[in-house]
Amino acid sequence: MAVILPLSADVKTGADMPANAEHPGAPRHVAIIMDGNGRWATMRGRPRLFGHHAGAKRVREIVRACPDVGVKYLTIFAFSTENWKRTQVEVAGLMSLFRRYITREARDLLAEGVRVRFIGDRVRLDTKLQKLMDELESLTKANEKVHLTIAINYGGRDEVARATKRLAEDVAAGRLDPAAVNEETLPRYLDTCVLPDPDLVIRTSGEARISNFLLWQSAYAEYEFIDTLWPDFSAGEFTKLLVNFGSRERRFGAIPA
Ligand code: FPP
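^ thats the input. predicted complex w/ farnesyl diphosphate below
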């Protein structure tokens, strides 16, 4: 039975990626759980969507900070597979915010060298949003300065389940030998197949959990759980966390030399 790997010539896993030459201590890939928008708004006596809008401004600031601090890949958790349980008003408001963000930011993202990708299951999203996502991916596909990945209707377990389904289909169709499946096989079916694994995962708002975000990919990530609510998270605080990262010893399970 033939083994057909990788799925695309574009596929790169963390191990294949070169180190960050210009910023040797910087994490190449930072993933962020942007939490605390609702509380930030409530503390100001405003509706939760007010907090999400303030959060979107921070997204803009943090994306723009990446080239200066040596972060090549930024992945942000914008809407989880569990977030559909929120009120209809909040869900509709968030979807509208995503459409607005894409429409308003597209030109600047293109000009600033940002390549945008989306991860998550798009099928449940409205067709207008899906179209905007496709168009932004296509518009920015030649950019290389910063790789921004936005997770919408994303859940780590859902991603692994979808990946497993496609892997099983390849086995059933004779394209993949089950005996050849190892821990390098599944990542090639994940939504993140072209991205390196995150080096650093940041969660704002004082909650110390990972909430189904990049479960497979973050096996060896460093974590920062910080109290700041996402709409207050600044480029300055981002930079401090990156400095902290530089002083961490990452052993990946090995004994220090
Ligand atoms: C979690 O905070 C945040 C979200 C579910 C939405 C994240 C979305 C943004 C930051 C908006 C902008 C994003 C893009 C890509 C334009 P929460 O509402 O659960 O906060 P809480 O725990 O205080 O209630």
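The pocket of farnesyl diphosphate is lined by residues 34-39, 48, 52, 55-56, 59, 78, 83, 97-98, 101, 150, 205, 230 (CB under 6 Å).
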